[in-house]
């Protein structure tokens, strides 16, 4: 899988061509990762997962599961997880450090094997990301948690169902606790849960394993634990953040781009804001066995986006993962836009890079003040995280001249074949090995 991930890459982007054509959405990284971790609930059983994207983070989760003894194979987008009767309950530190989502093995391991040792995920470039809510929930279910030398040691004879109120609707905590509850005794009611579509995808998988899960998207999940599980098969939902990246690539280049395999209600927050900004687009039913809808964006008659205000919020609010992408789009709006970040405190590190390309962005506390400019200029810029990297590529596509986006390793964590997909809709982009001096 993906030797491209082993080297350092930069992307050369030559701007201003209007993009035109169709692009298909990949499976959602953030849905696939917790579902992959959930296979640890299956003792001596098998999980088949369809529509899994080919990404570096998926490789990291694969390495983690293999290190624990799970046999993992891949045939195009379909992955098979054969889980032995016994697995190692220790998550190797170097893999947890590489990807925070590795901590998602905690819930299923304690639930099924009564023990887990996982190193504390460190800080990352978008800000500190504790797992206190995950641990608090596990303690409520009867787990004993000890922190020793940077590792979380969790143990429990058998977790017990209970009522858990999350202080914040954390996506990861909701997922970890749902998986823990799947093998607990009795019923667990988790309140103030995350309502992201990825939660529903995990709920469907747990149901496929035989667990009774009642998650109606209203911020409350009820789970009745089971004593035995069964083989299961499920499809990963389309990646709403990736879909929005290509929608915005069309918008920013004044092009005509259709993005297939989209669930419209997953991206309502962006569509509502695009409407407010004056973008013309339509949501169309499509044939095929994907999500059944496509979104087409058309060239903007007024040429420039109208300025808008956005606040990032948990779903169904505007996603923090789309924040850098919309900021890139607003750099060329016809006025002053305000974008407030409410989830991660250090998520504007990329603004300085956009300013190197001629954008006019000021960061005031947790708000980006974006004054629209007439044009952007190509420049050498560096990704500071995954979505920041995608935002810089979008800006490069809408710039005059050539840009070079460095640290593409971040982008490979979440975008499958981004260079080929962009070229297929007319972009002039190329991956190049970066100098490693
Ligand atoms: C997931 C997504 C990530 C997205 C984020 C918010 C995956 C693999 N990643 O991350 O792309 O940006 O949701 O939509 O699905 N928090 C605590 N204590 C905790 C847990 C979280 O204080 O125990 C805080 C975090 O610091 C952050 C906020 O809650 O400020 C949201 O985090 P959370 O929803 O947990 O995000 P992740 O699951 O890490």
Which labels suit this protein?
single chain; binds uridine-diphosphate-N-acetylglucosamine; four-stranded mixed sheet; alpha/beta
Topology:
Blueprint: E1 9-14, E2 20-24, H1 29-38, E3 46-50, H2 56-67, E4 71-75, E5 78-82, E6 90-91, H3 93-98, H4 106-113, E7 115-119, H5 132-140, E8 144-148, E9 151-155, E10 163-165, H6 171-181, E11 187-191, H7 197-208, E12 212-215, E13 220-224, E14 232-235, H8 240-252, E15 256-262, H9 268-276, E16 280-285, E17 293-298, E18 309-311, H10 323-330, E19 336-340, H11 351-356, E20 360-364, E21 367-371, E22 376-377, E23 380-382, H12 386-397, E24 399-400, E25 402-406, H13 408-412, H14 418-424, E26 428-433
Parallel strand pairs: 2-15, 3-14, 6-7, 10-11, 18-19, 22-24, 23-25
Antiparallel strand pairs: 1-25, 1-26, 3-5, 4-5, 7-9, 8-9, 11-13, 12-13, 15-17, 16-17, 19-21, 20-21
């Amino acid at each position: 899988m993906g030797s491209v991930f082993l080297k350092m890459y930069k992307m050369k982007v030559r701007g201003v061509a209007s993009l035109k054509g169709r692009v298909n959405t990949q499976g959602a990284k953030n849905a696939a990762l917790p579902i992959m971790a959930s296979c640890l609930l299956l003792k001596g059983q098998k999980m088949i997962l369809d529509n899994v994207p080919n990404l570096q983070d998926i490789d990291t989760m694969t390495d983690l599961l293999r290190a624990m003894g799970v046999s993992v194979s891949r045939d195009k987008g379909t992955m098979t997880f054969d889980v032995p009767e016994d697995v190692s309950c220790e998550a190797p530190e170097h893999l947890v450090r590489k990807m925070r989502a590795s901590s998602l093995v905690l819930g299923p391991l304690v639930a099924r094997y009564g023990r887990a040792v996982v190193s504390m995920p460190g800080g990352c470039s978008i800000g500190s990301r504790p797992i206190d809510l995950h641990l608090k929930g596990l303690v409520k279910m009867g787990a004993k948690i000890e922190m020793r030398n940077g590792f979380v040691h969790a143990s429990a004879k058998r977790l017990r169902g209970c009522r858990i109120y999350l202080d914040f609707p954390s996506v990861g905590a909701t997922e970890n606790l749902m998986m823990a509850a799947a093998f607990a005794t009795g019923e667990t009611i988790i309140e103030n849960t995350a309502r992201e579509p990825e939660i529903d995808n995990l709920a469907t998988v747990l149901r496929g394993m035989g667990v009774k899960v009642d998650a109606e998207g209203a911020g409350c999940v009820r789970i009745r634990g089971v004593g035995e599980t069964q083989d299961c098969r499920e499809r990963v939902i389309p990646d709403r953040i990736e879909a929005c990246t290509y929608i915005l690539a069309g918008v920013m280049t004044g092009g005509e781009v259709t993005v297939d395999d989209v669930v419209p209600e997953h991206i309502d927050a962006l569509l509502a804001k695009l409407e407010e900004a004056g973008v013309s687009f339509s949501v169309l039913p499509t044939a095929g066995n994907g999500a059944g809808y496509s979104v087409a964006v058309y060239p903007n008659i007024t040429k420039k986006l109208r300025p808008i205000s956005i606040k990032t919020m948990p779903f169904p609010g505007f996603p923090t993962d789309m924040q850098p992408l919309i900021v890139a789009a607003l750099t060329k709006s016809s006025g002053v836009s305000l974008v407030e970040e409410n989830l991660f405190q250090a998520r504007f590190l990329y603004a300085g890079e956009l300013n190197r390309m001629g954008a006019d962005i000021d960061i005031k506390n947790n708000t980006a003040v974006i004054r629209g400019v007439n044009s952007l200029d190509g420049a050498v810029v560096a990704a500071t995280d995954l979505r920041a990297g995608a935002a810089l590529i979008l800006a490069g596509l809408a710039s005059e001249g050539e840009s070079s986006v460095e640290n593409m390793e971040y982008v490979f964590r979440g975008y499958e074949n981004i260079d080929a997909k962009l070229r297929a809709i007319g972009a002039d982009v190329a991956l190049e090995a970066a100098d490693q001096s």
